[in-house]
Amino acid sequence: MEMKDYGNGLNPTWCKGCGHFSILRSLQTTASRMNIPREMLAVVSGIGCSGRISGYMNAYSFHSVHGRSLPVAQGIKLANPDLIVVAAGGDGDGFAIGTSHTVHAIRRNMDITYIVMNNQVYGLTKGHVSPVSHQGFKTKTTPMGSVDMPLEPGLLALASGASFYAQGFSAQQEELIELIQNAIEHPGFSLVQVFSPCVTYNKVNTYQWFREHLKSADEVRKADPSDYLGSMQLLKETEGLCTGVIYQNRTKLSYEELHQEVKEKNLATQDLRMTEAVYQQITERFKL
Hints:
Elements: H1 20-33, E1 41-45, E2 60-63, H2 69-79, E3 84-90, H3 91-97, H4 99-108, E4 113-118, H5 153-159, E5 164-169, H6 173-185, E6 190-195, H7 207-213, E7 215-216, H8 217-220, H9 228-238, E8 242-248, H10 255-258, H11 261-264, H12 276-284
Parallel strand pairs: 1-2, 1-3, 3-4, 4-6, 5-6, 7-8
Antiparallel strand pairs: 5-8
Helix pairs in contact: 1-6, 3-4
């Protein structure tokens, strides 16, 4: 399998230079390197510029509603645990309307991967602040600058009990491919936040800005990625601006390991055909 085998021929509608192009290529390249059969891969997305990614994949794809990619992804995984399920969304999708789903998916630790495409702005609605925009960020809806404190995704993920958390940069594609592969191979819920510059509506957090501010987690960290407090300290010291595997707990049991019946009695293995007798029995209940 090659990267092009996971594309469906549709041209993305993202603005030229958008970081999301690199994330799409990274996901397709990861799938090819892992030689994942297309019929064994499901990609679920939400709403926003990031929501288009599922529509460009040659695999099972589901374009859900705003902030709801994770409930759909978890449902797919429960129905067929053999599938590799990847959910994707933006910072507004995952940390605003979908925050509760993100937190509970993390603590549930189902074996799926969640890629958050973070451009620190609402791009699809023509540019206004997101939950991770920095204080002072000026947009059409905050002309004097945002006064809200930004949410820190990494600290939220670790505080919610994440068993795998990583951060990447769309301009560092080779590292991003490795991070996504590590996330998919991790036996539990894995969250990969990707700094993905919006070239149209965010003139502050540009490619150059990230190159000047991002640091390598491996070069900064003082402890192993399995050290919970050390990973917290890493995020605090770098103000969240670092790339690499931030934290990984290999001992935390996944949802599937705790609930063996999920694998043994899931929908994909059941005979869902209805006999005529059963159909008649059900319809009799609704007759007047």
